[in-house]
Design a protein that fits this description.
transmembrane helix; transmembrane; about 100 residues; HGSNAT_cat; mainly alpha; Heparan-alpha-glucosaminide N-acetyltransferase catalytic domain-containing protein; extended; membrane
Length: about 100
């Protein structure tokens, strides 16, 4: 029994994925989710307790810095050819996040 479906299709492009970075990025995202769930949905008794403060201190800063570092590494692996394309992509992502934030509040 397999846990994930991994297609074995030769038509898909070879993107030379870095498994270590992918696992670290996934771990950083999970840690960020834990921190945000604690902050937004946790009871005050839990958030401001020794447990909540320890979780935020131990997981919060490392998760955020690991996520930002790995995103910076992947910018280096990007297939964009010019800085203009990178800036255009960054502006588009910022606008997307901005409008998503407005839509969710």
């Amino acid at each position: 029994m397999t846990l994930f479906y991994l297609p074995n299709n030769s038509a898909t492009p070879n993107v030379n994925r870095q498994l270590t970075f992918d696992v670290a990025k996934g771990l950083a995202v999970l840690l960020m989710i834990m921190i945000h769930v604690l902050d937004f949905y946790g009871l005050d008794e839990v958030r401001f307790s020794a447990f909540g403060n320890t979780i935020k201190f131990v997981l919060g800063w490392p998760a955020a810095s690991m996520f930002v570092f790995i995103m910076g590494v992947f910018v280096g692996f990007s297939t964009s050819t010019t800085p203009r394309e990178e800036i255009k992509r960054a502006k588009g992502l910022c606008l997307y996040v901005y409008f998503l934030r407005i839509a969710l509040t």
